[in-house]
Amino acid sequence: MLTGLNIAVIGGDARQLEVIRKLTELEAKLFLVGFDQLDHGFTGATKVKIEDVQFEEIDAIILPIPGTDKEGIIDTVFSNIEIKFSEDLLKRTPDHCVIYSGITNNYLNSLVENTNRKLIQLFKRDDVAIYNSIPTVEGTIMMVIQHTDITIHGSNIAVLGLGRVGMSVARTFAALGANVKVGARDTAHLARISEMGLTPFQLNDIEDHVSDIDVCINTIPHLVVTSSVIANMPAHTLIVDLASKPGGTDFRYAEKRGIKALLAPGLPGIVAPKTAGQIVANVLTQLLEEVKKNRKGFSS
After folding, report:
1. Is the torsion defined by CA of 35, 37, 42, 48 positive or negative?
2. Helices 164-175/126-147 angle, 10° precision
3. Is 62:283 a contact under the CB 8 Å cutoff?
4. C-beta separation of 197 from 174 below 8 A
5. Is the peptide bond before 246 cis (omega within 30 degrees of 0)?
6. CA angle 137–206–270, rounded 5-degree value
7. How does pLDDT run along the chain (300 residues), one tens digit per residue?
C-alpha cells in the first residue's frame, strides 16, 4: 500500500488515468494538475491548479510520458490551461521527492540537476520498453494497413534499428509473411538479425537497401532516413517513424518527393491507452514503494 504518500500527477493523456486508478486503489493521496476537463472522479484524488499544489509536502511527481517540451510546457489532454514545470516549483519539494517521466530532454535534465532532485525515466527500463513494444507493434500494423494498398504478406519491409521496439516490429512483420530486412550498426545485432531468419544490413549501407522496399519502419531517434536515402526509395514507399520527436526522418524532403512519411511516437497511448497505462502503473507502484521506505520521518 502507498498510504501516506502525497503524489502530484501533472498532465498527460489517457494512460495517466490507469496510473491514477492504480495509485488511488493503493491509498496514495493524489493531486491532479491538468485534469480539469476530466469528468471521471477518483476517490483519494483532488483536481487542483498547479499554483495551489503544496509542493513542500509532495513525495513524488508523475509527468506525462514525454516529460516536458523544450520550454518546460507539459502536455495536457484533459485541460486547455498551459502548465509549465519550473525550477521554482521543484525547489519547493522535499529533498526526497522523485520525478517520474517516460523520457527526458535538456530542459528537464537541467531542472533536476539544478535542484538536486532525482529523475527516473520509465522508458529507459527494459521491462517497460519491452511491454510497451507490444501495443507499438499493433499500432504500426494498423498504420501500414491504413496507408498502403498492398497486403503485409509478401511486402518488402525495412526496419531500422534492433532495439527493444525494433526487434518486436521485425519479428511480428516477418510472422505476418513480409520479407523483412533489418538495418543495424552493432555486429551483435547483425548476428541476431541473421539468427532470427531475417536479412541484416549495415546501416552505413542503407541507401543500397531501400530501392525495392514498400515500407520503411524507423525506430532510431537520430536522422537516419536522410534525403539521399529517401531519394533511393520507390515512390510508393511508406515511412513509419516510431522514434521520439522529432524522429529520424527528413520529413520535408519526403513530402517534396511525394513519399508518405508518418511520425508516430507514443503509439501505445493512441491504440491501447488502457494497456499502456497499466504497464506504467505497475512499474510506478514498485518504484513508489521505495519512495515510501526512503521518506524521512516515515514509520510503518
Report:
1. positive
2. 40
3. no
4. yes
5. yes
6. 20
7. 899 999 999 999 999 999 999 999 999 999 999 999 998 778 889 999 999 999 999 999 999 998 999 999 999 999 999 999 999 999 999 999 999 999 999 999 999 999 999 999 999 999 999 999 999 999 999 999 999 999 999 999 999 999 999 999 999 999 999 999 999 999 999 999 999 999 999 999 999 999 999 999 999 999 999 999 999 999 999 999 999 888 999 999 999 999 999 999 889 988 999 999 999 999 999 999 988 887 755 544
CA distance 273 to 51: 28
Q: Give dist(CA 96, CA 92) in Å, integer.
A: 11
Contacts for 238 with CB less than 8 Å, ≥ 6 apart: 144, 147, 148, 214, 215, 216, 259, 260, 261, 262
d(CA 59, CA 102): 18
Contacts of range 175-181, beta carbons closer than 8 Å, 24 or more positions apart = 176/141, 176/152, 177/151, 177/152, 177/153, 178/152, 178/153, 178/154, 178/215, 179/154, 179/155, 181/156, 181/157, 181/209, 181/213
Give how far the C-alpha of residue 45 lies from the chain's centroid of Cα atoms, to the nearest Å. 25
Q: What are phi and psi for residue 90, nearest 5 degrees?
A: -70, -35
- Inter-CA distances, 217 with 24, 174, 265, Å: 38, 13, 12
Long-range contacts of 119-127 (CB under 8 A, 24+ apart): 120/287, 122/65, 122/280, 122/283, 122/284, 123/65, 125/283, 126/164, 127/283
94 CB-near residues (< 8 Å, 6+ apart): 56, 57, 58, 59, 295, 296
Rounded to 5 degrees, what are φ and ψ at 61?
Answer: -125, 125
